[in-house]
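Sample intake sheet
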Amino acid sequence: MPRTKSTENAAEQFVKSIEAQPIPGFESPAQPAQIVSQPIDREQVLANMQMNMGPAAREKAKTTSNQTMSLDEAQEARRNEIREQVQSKGLGYLRINPQDLPTKGIFYEPGTEFFVRAATGGEIRHWSQTNETTVADVNDSLNYMLERCLSVKMPGRVADWRDLVEIDRFYMILCIRDFTFVDGNNELMITINENKQVPLKKDNIQFIDLGDKLMRFYNVEKRCFTLQEFDTKYGKHIRLTKPLDIYMPRLGVTEWLKNYVQRKQQSREMFDRDFISMAPLLVPDFRSLNDQTYSRLIADCDYFGPVEYSLIEQFKRVIAQSVEPKFIYNDEEGVEQQAPLNFQGGWKNLFLETGLDELL
């Protein structure tokens, strides 16, 4: 797959920051070691670097003109060797800028950081067993890849893949895929029509457009949308009894609700089926969810009237459109067009080699 702008230098970024950015979850020592300044012996540094080189880097050193190698060349050879190890063994994490996400990071706490790594052979093996005919199985496989390959850091608390906003999920999956197939030899093709296919690039995908009308309700403190007083398009002024906070659904919340429904169905217990569909918009954090708090949430929303339910339904429509991203491309006349994400080979090809379909 061709390297996109955000992942083109993934390995290079990791190599350059291998000392400055520890793997997420590991902290630097509280007191740094004292450093004694002394002159640098470039010849000794070069000799040490060549001693630590692997076979590929040493071979490059041997073939360098005059059997010598400058310090810069030795450093570059060592970086290339580390880069090859990162790509072949899935070592290291790539930092994802929250502002590059479809949501632009506005629904996460300030200081939230995301890191992805390449999928391993075992994880791809698990992925290959996905049943594409079952939506639940595809959903579980996507979450499995995030659970294994995504690291999330939030100030003051432990975080993980469940803190990811649902709309950002597919973008993060594509980041993992790009870092897994960094050589650009595994293009995933989007079917435009019967006669045309184009390579999938995440920069060409339109995930969500948070327009000005929606953003005027954005609450920067709560990282959600808060509605209480507004005018309709017909000029009617509406003031809600209580402020209505609407959150962008997070994977942890939808996962808990899915398990909740399964438990109720298996035990043949009654539950509010209507409220299930709107609950992801009303829960800010999956950590607060249990059967008691969920029942309390239903009771707390008992005062809802036509306006509250209408607002929630409108937000549901906006989110439903955003979780089905569209591929943007230019036709033969240069006119921008849209196409559904219907890639060749189905969901499985996200993490499988796509050039083997004509081999057998």
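Comment: The mean pLDDT is 78. Residues 71-89 form the longest helix (19 residues).
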